[in-house]
Amino acid sequence: MRGWFPGGRVPSLVVSTEVVSLFSLMTLLLACAAFLEPVGPTDEALIQGQLPTYPVATCVISDELLEEGEIVDVVVEGRLVRVCCSGCARRVKAAPARAIAKIDRAVIDQQVAAYPLKTCLKNIQEPLSGSAVNAVVGTRLVRTCCLDCAQQVKAEPAAFMRTLDAAYTAQQLPDYAVETCVVSDEPLDEDALNVLYGNTLVRLCCKGCHRTFTKEPELFMKKIGASEKSKRKPESHGVDRDGSHDDDHDG
Fold first, then answer.
1. What is the pLDDT of residue 36?
2. Which of 64, 157, 233, 250 ranks highest by number of CB atoms within 10 Å?
3. Quick check: helix, strand or coil at residue 115?
4. Which residues does residue 72 pair with via DSSP β-bridges, in sequence order?
5. What's the mean pLDDT in 59-77?
6. Listed residue (190, 153, 151, 155) closest to 173, CA to CA
7. Of the candidates 229, 227, 190, 198, which has an alpha carbon nearest to the alpha carbon of residue 214?
8. What pLDDT score does 6 carry?
9. Which residues lie across from 201 on neighbouring strands?
10. Please, which residues have CB within 8 angstroms of residue 157's CB and are 6 or more apart in sequence?
11. What number of CA atoms fall less than 13 Å from residue 72's CA on the CB side?
């Protein structure tokens, strides 16, 4: 080869090898970056997670009543926003702050009365006072003792939301009205699975029923609602429809 090229080198071959090596290195780095980049929830998963506690029945832009089959779900800044049409969806995407603020106010108004914790969600030993901070994660209320704690909860919510889930479960479990699994109708025992649909406790007999529940949750929630309604019906206590008592007393 030294007789064919001056200086015994093959420049074109060396350059080609360097280009291939550089390209391979760049490909490897890009692949590693894609692998390491944190992947958030898909829009569909986010919608399904926030829909159970979505608080507004009207379009946040037009104030028109949201009609099934015509609702446009928008995900912006990690938040679900429901609007009546594609035009309102474009307005939300262009300037989401006002819409999100409206949703946050509705979440706080609807959830504060039944909030299950009396202490800060971040600093669990700190009682909530009159200056407690009401913040929103997704479409769920979180309450903290100060703004700094609220910001920390919103920055890394996963562990804190598990604490909140446990508090809602403990709050609702004693009065849970359904004695059977809402999917299989099997009696619930001590091994029943406790899950939350939004902030509402649902008890199931097994993980298989949980998977079935997640496919059509609203169908099964109607079943829970009907059962709770029947449990709340007052007993007659021996009073006939005409208002007279049916027990026979002499005298």
1. 42
2. 157
3. coil
4. 83
5. 95
6. 190
7. 198
8. 55
9. 196
10. 137, 142
11. 18
Residue with tokens 């379009």: 59
Each residue's pLDDT tens digit, 21-30:
555 655 655 5
Between residues 102 and 35, the one the model is more confident about: 102
Who contacts 136 (Cβ-Cβ below 8 Å, separation ≥6)?
A: 103, 104, 107, 108, 142
pLDDT at 154: 97
Is residue 239 within 8 A of residue 197, CB to CB? The reply is no
Q: Is 117 helix (H, G, I), strand (E, B) or coil?
A: coil
Question: Tell me, what amino acid is at 191?
Answer: D
Residue 144 tokens read as: 């903290």
How many Å apart are CA 221 and CA 184, to the nearest integer? 14
Would you tell me how many other CB atoms lie within 10 Å of the CB of residue 84?
20
Domain ranges of the chain: 41-111, 113-174, 176-231
Q: Residue 34 pLDDT more than 90?
A: no
- C-alpha to C-alpha distance for 59 and 65, rounded to whole angstroms: 6
For residue range 138-187, list pLDDT tens digits in order: 999 999 999 999 999 999 999 999 999 999 999 999 999 899 999 999 99
Q: Which helix (H) or strand (E) holds 242?
A: none
R_g over Cα of the chain: 29
Three-state secondary-structure class, residue 133: strand
Rounded CA gap, 51 and 103, in Å? 12
pLDDT at 22: 57
Q: How many CB atoms lie within 10 A of CB 94?
A: 8
